[in-house]
């Protein structure tokens, strides 16, 4: 499936001339790729196949929603998920929480002119805990065109180094 990722990398680089994109939530920076890979329960590339919005529990203002996004796994670096598996991601959306909408609706990502950014639907996801996983700005999870592509080469390097180490009889780091 590496060829699919390489096509995505090339496609993402076409967007380099786009204006800088700004997230609507401020959160501490996520760990580097190696630490995120080590601490995540699962790391995978996936495409959004459906999204539903539900009123957030206890919200009477209508400003908060819970998004349930179903993804189809395209490639896996860690965890038991395999290409073709479906994964449900949950996001708490609204003012304050750092949840991310899989389709940027409601928008969490805006261009400097405050225009809503349209996403491709392909995400690199670092999942923690158990399903349904949370899609949050506090992790390295990102749409492929907004940071996800930057992690791919490092994930390939880290996981191939670990595979070579295991094949030669040494434990990976």
Question: How would you describe this protein?
Answer:
- There is one protein chain.
- By secondary structure, the protein is α+β, with helices and mostly antiparallel strands.
- It has one domain: OB fold (Dihydrolipoamide Acetyltransferase, E2P).
- It is 25% helix and 29% strand.
- It contains 3 helices and 8 strands, in the order H-E-H-E-E-E-E-E-E-E-H.
- It has helices spanning 2-13, 33-39, 144-167; strands at residues 22-23, 42-55, 65-78, 86-93, 109-110, 122-127, 133-134, 142-143.
- Strands 7-4-3-2-6-8 form a 6-stranded mixed sheet.
- Helix 1 (2-13) packs antiparallel against helix 3.
- The two termini are 24 Å apart.
- Mean pLDDT is 80; it is low at 3-23 and 164-173.
What is the percent of helical residues? 10-25%
Query: What is the overall silhouette?
Result: globular
What is the name of the CATH topology?
OB fold (Dihydrolipoamide Acetyltransferase, E2P)
In CATH terms, what is the architecture? Beta Barrel
Order of helices and strands: HEHEEEEEEEH
The main sheet comes to: 6 strands, mixed
Low-confidence stretches: 3-23, 164-173
Tally of individual helices: 3
Count of beta strands: 8
| Rg (CA only) | 17 Å
Structural class label: alpha+beta
CATH top level is Mainly Beta
Number of domains: 1
Distance between the termini: 24 Å
